[in-house]
Specification:
The structure holds two protein chains of two kinds.
Chain A lengths: L6 H14 L2 E2 H11 L7 H10 L3 E8 L2 E8 L1 H25 L6
Antiparallel strand pairs in A: 1-3, 2-3
Helix pairs in contact in A: 1-3, 1-4
Chain B lengths: L2 H11 L5 H17 L8 H5 L2 H22 L7 H14 L3 H43 L6 H53 L3
Helix pairs in contact in B: 1-2, 1-4, 4-5, 6-7
Classes of the chains: A alpha+beta, B mainly alpha.
């Protein structure tokens, strides 16, 4: 991947995925790895950070005699995600404008 | 490395984190490795990296987080000491690179000092020779008898000449040393840029 995923973009991506449904670490990582170039250890610090900021919440669910920690988006998280979406759309349009060469036309 | 070995090394590497952060990370990876459904004998590190790398990532982010807390959330200002501790922890837990950088910087400073001392020593020798030579040449007027006057004058001039030669030589080695140092700096800088390019996500 030529363009890098910076921390806020990663936060936005994770929030976007978790908003759709609650996930646990492994599936979240696998799902994101199908789309973007991250490693298996990239997401733990992101999840921890979002949790500390109160954007995600965790709860445990038993699975085959052990625990699985699920992440769920909070109201605060939804607000932040809405903000990230607006920011992303604005940013994308600006970059398209430059990369597309429309600034000259 | 199997799961057991991976987990115990990870725990060891995270030992200086606050208990709560450490527990959370260990639980996460314990569960994660279970979810990977590894074949018996399959190496955990092949997929998620070595415990060292994983620990470094966690510690680096924790440090970052503490700093962010300070920037965005002044009311819960944490002590500078705890940030400093985490930064140092990050440095010393870093995979070889950072300690190596420190060693390189120290070696570089040592090189500067040594080369600087050599140039300084030659320079002092040159100036001394010139000063003494000129002084002797002038004082030759005080020598008794014309023959002695010329001998002392000659000695003074020879001494001055040697001093001038030393001066030229000092200039030459200073130039060579400067070239060596700028070569080292340039190579170091290009290596750092290369490293930075290869560590992007």
């Amino acid at each position: 991947m030529t363009y890098q995923l910076t921390a806020p973009l990663l936060d936005a991506c994770v929030l976007g995925v978790v908003e759709k449904e609650d996930v646990y670490g492994y599936t979240l990582t696998q799902r994101m790895m199908e789309v973007v170039d991250i490693s298996e250890s990239t997401l733990y610090p992101v999840l921890r950070r979002l949790q500390k900021f109160g954007l995600l919440q965790v709860y445990d669910k038993p699975y085959q005699g052990r625990n699985r920690r699920y992440y769920r988006i909070t109201d605060e998280g939804r607000k932040q995600l809405a903000f990230f979406r607006d920011e992303w759309t604005a940013y994308k349009e600006k970059i398209d404008y430059l990369v597309g060469g429309w600034i000259n036309g | 490395m199997d799961k057991q070995a991976f987990m115990s090394e990870l725990e060891y590497r995270l030992r200086r984190l606050p208990e709560d952060d450490k527990r959370d990370a260990l639980d996460y990876y314990y569960e994660y490795i279970d979810d990977m459904n590894l074949a018996p004998g399959e190496d955990v590190c092949m997929r998620i990296g070595t415990p060292k790398e994983v620990a470094f990532e966690i510690i680096a982010q924790t440090t970052q987080r503490v700093m962010d807390d300070e920037n965005y959330d002044r009311r819960s200002a944490k002590s500078v000491g705890s940030v400093l501790k985490l930064v140092l922890l990050g440095i010393f837990a870093a995979p070889i690179a950072l300690p190596l950088v420190i060693v390189m910087v120290v070696l570089f400073v040592a090189l500067l000092i040594v080369l600087g001392s050599v140039v300084f020593a030659f320079g002092v020798t040159a100036v001394t020779c010139i000063v003494v030579g000129v002084a002797v040449a002038v004082l030759s007027l005080l020598a008794v008898g014309l023959g002695s006057k010329f001998i002392v004058l000659g000695a003074g001039l020879v001494c001055t000449g040697v001093g001038v030669l030393f001066m030229l030589f000092t200039g030459l080695i200073a130039k060579v040393f400067a070239a060596v140092i700028s070569g080292v700096v340039r190579r170091g800088a290009s290596k750092r840029v290369r490293n930075m390019n290869s560590t992007g996500i």
